[in-house]
Specification:
A hairpin with a 2-residue loop joins strand 5 and strand 6. The strands form two sheets. The protein has an eight-stranded antiparallel β-barrel. Strands 1-10 form a two-stranded antiparallel sheet. The longest helix is centred in the first third of the chain and has 25 residues. With 249 residues, the chain is mainly beta. About 2% of the residues have low confidence. The chain has a single domain, classed as Porin (Beta Barrel).
């Protein structure tokens, strides 16, 4: 009888222990996977793109006679359209973005003014025209990104191809072409709208300062000092090579 009671008591204790173990397993908390945070747009990498827009150049001509001081011939704005392309590389560190870019554009900025009487070697009433045919920009950039939105400023060197013409009675009499170097500053806003693709708007100013140039034709020559600068706005579309998005948990 005692042996039976001992066996029964042991079986009861074993059952209670098993139930307690099962209860312990059931009480273990469930751990959820970490939630996925919104993707972070990455601006790093090489990119190429196209751009188009318009601009204006302000130009003032002074005739430089052999003796005496400069004689003003007047000022005019040369306006028109431009189109071209750009290539560059950007590095992103946290929200800061650094970059280098080269841009080349065709342009058709043209304008003129009628000279004052006595303002040029052919007499007053002729027409001075300035026409910008092309320009290039070589710049560094620094910007700040909010996910797929980037704002930046830029600065560096600029080169501009310019043609100068003097017309009398509607016919070109004197002309010259010149490649001028200067500085440039600008600012832009760019938005990533699809993987690797972005669209933006950019404003640029080119400083050309003073330059001496001699217009010649028909046996005549006219030494001039010409002051110019350029303002322009362009819409840009870029394609960036490499992974556009970094997903973070």
């Amino acid at each position: 009888m005692n042996k039976f009671l001992l066996v029964a008591a042991g079986a009861l204790a074993l059952g209670l222990t098993s139930q307690a173990s099962a209860a312990d397993l059931a009480a273990r908390p469930y751990t959820k996977a970490p939630p996925l945070v919104a993707p972070i747009y990455n601006w790093s990498g090489f990119y190429v793109g196209i751009n188009g827009g318009g601009g204006t150049s302000h130009n003032c001509w002074d005739f430089l006679p052999v003796v005496g001081g400069a004689i003003p011939e007047g000022c005019h704005d040369s306006t028109g359209g431009t189109a071209g392309g750009q290539i560059g590389y950007r590095w992103q560190y946290t929200n800061w973005v650094l970059g280098l870019e080269a841009q080349g554009n065709w342009a058709d900025f043209s304008g003129s003014n009628t000279t004052f009487v006595g303002g040029n070697p052919l007499g007053g009433g002729s027409i001075d025209r300035t026409k910008i045919d092309a320009f290039g920009l070589f710049t560094g950039q620094i910007g700040y990104a909010w996910n797929n939105v980037l704002v930046y400023v830029k600065g560096g060197a600029a080169v501009v191809d310019i043609k100068y013409d003097n017309f009398l009675a509607g016919f070109p009499t004197l002309s010259a072409t010149q490649t001028r170097w200067g500085g440039t500053v600008g600012a832009g806003l760019e938005i990533g709208f699809a993987p690797n693709w972005s669209v933006g708007f950019e404003y640029d100013h080119i400083f050309l300062d003073d330059s001496n140039v001699t217009l010649a034709g028909g046996g005549f020559a006219a030494p001039l000092n010409i002051r110019s600068d350029v303002d322009m706005g362009t819409v840009r579309v870029n394609y960036r090579f490499g992974g556009p998005i970094v997903a973070k948990y």
